[in-house]
Amino acid sequence: MSERQTDVAAFISDLDGGVFEQKYGAILSDVALSVNNTSKKGKVTIEMEFSALDENRVTISHKLKFTAPTMRGNRSEDNTTTTPMYVNKGGRLSLFKEDQGQLFTVKGETDGKLKTVN
Asked: How far apart are the C-alpha atoms of 9 and 26, rounded to whole Å?
């Protein structure tokens, strides 16, 4: 994997502050159990839509949909949330900007470029 590619595991865990990952795990287990109990097919779908937010940031709308089989049909649900993320060098997505610049001098004092609070 290139250093500039998005780390998919970190990306998934960052979505919706970690809640998306928890919902995804619960849904995978639920659908797998339903398929095992009914011998029918189930389905889990992730949809992501990207829109520009401001300079070097995008809003990611992530939808988690599932269909779990039941003995007399199926049950389904979809859940959509959004997460803003920075688009860093090479397109790497993260919650935080990777090149914020120098904030402090070697001695630990604030850099001259920063404004002081009075």
From this structure: 17
pLDDT digits (tens, 9 = 90+) for 26-77: 999 999 999 999 999 999 999 999 999 998 999 999 999 999 999 999 999 9
Q: Token pair 């990952």 is at which residue?
A: 21
Backbone angles phi, psi at 90, to 5 degrees: 80, 5
In terms of Cα–Cα distance, which of 108, 110, 86 is closest to 99? 86
* CB distance 63 to 46 below 8 Å: yes
DSSP string, 16-27: GGGHHHHHHHHH
* Per-residue CA distances from 13 to 22, 78, 83, 118 (Å): 9, 19, 11, 39
Token look-up 């007399």 returns 72
Question: CB of 69 within 8 A of CB of 34?
Answer: yes
Q: Are strands 43-54 and 73-87 parallel, antiparallel or unpaired?
A: unpaired
